[in-house]
């Protein structure tokens, strides 16, 4: 499979914001420079969350196709956080599609009374934890907290990034990461308390 990758890339010194403005105007060279700058770490981070290399490649391609189509929607100086939000959502979509395919395959096998079980890989412990963070009460609560706090929480908790890595990803100071992480946990706890009659962590 060939990744979406425009030819060119002599605009590497431009800022993310400048590149995205050019991409919004249809500049394929700017798109190539943006790809060269961000594809590597995006691929590595996706691979940490998904063991299937084909899914990772598909999600990476879908991410940059989305960037090509939606560059005008980006706001701010750094593109890292925005790109990762797109990639994470595409990964969730890919997992949902894979789960639907597995359910269809299982139903088909049951209907025809095939004696052997379908070959469907069981989700890993990490995938189950991540699914719990994306869906259910935790996922709903995450959607209710402030976007800038949610980005920090997902980077530090879901992706397991350090404070320094999160600061580089989101383009904010490390001190801001720490402050937002504390606020994010407080907002998440409050949001979960509204969703469930039992407080997070049990009675105080």
From TrEMBL:
Q: Domain RNA polymerase sigma-70 region spans what residues? A: 34-100
Does this UniProt record's set of keywords contain Transcription regulation? Answer: yes
Where in the numbering of this chain does the RNA polymerase sigma factor 70 region 4 type domain appear?
138-188
User: Cross-referenced Gene3D superfamilies, in alphabetical order?
Assistant: 1.10.1740.10, Winged helix-like DNA-binding domain superfamily/Winged helix DNA-binding domain (1.10.10.10)
One Pfam family cited in the UniProt record for this chain:
Sigma70_r2
The yes or no answer to whether the keyword Transcription is present is yes
Record keywords: Sigma factor, Transcription, Transcription regulation
Q: Which domain of life is it from?
A: Bacteria
* Family designation: Belongs to the sigma-70 factor family. ECF subfamily.
Q: Please state what the protein is called.
A: RNA polymerase sigma factor
Q: Which species does this protein come from?
A: Streptomyces macrolidinus
């Amino acid at each position: 499979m060939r990744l979406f990758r425009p030819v060119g890339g002599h605009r590497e010194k431009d800022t993310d914001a400048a590149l995205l403005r050019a991409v919004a105007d249809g500049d394929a060279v700017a798109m190539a420079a943006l790809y060269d700058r961000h594809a590597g770490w995006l691929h590595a981070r996706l691979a940490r969350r998904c063991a299937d290399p084909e899914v990772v490649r598909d999600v990476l391609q879908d991410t940059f196709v989305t960037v090509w189509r939606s560059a005008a929607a980006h706001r701010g100086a750094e593109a890292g956080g925005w790109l990762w939000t797109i990639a994470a959502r595409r990964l969730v979509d890919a997992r949902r599609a894979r789960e639907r395919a597995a359910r269809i395959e299982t139903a088909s096998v049951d209907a025809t009374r095939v004696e052997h079980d379908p070959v469907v890989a069981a989700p890993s412990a990490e995938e189950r934890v991540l699914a719990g963070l994306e869906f259910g009460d935790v996922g709903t609560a995450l959607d209710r907290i402030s976007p800038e706090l949610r980005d920090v929480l997902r980077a530090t908790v879901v992706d397991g990034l350090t404070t320094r890595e999160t600061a580089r990803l989101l383009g904010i100071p490390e001190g801001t990461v720490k402050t937002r992480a504390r606020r994010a946990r407080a907002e998440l706890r409050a949001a979960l308390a509204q969703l469930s009659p039992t407080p997070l962590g049990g009675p105080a």
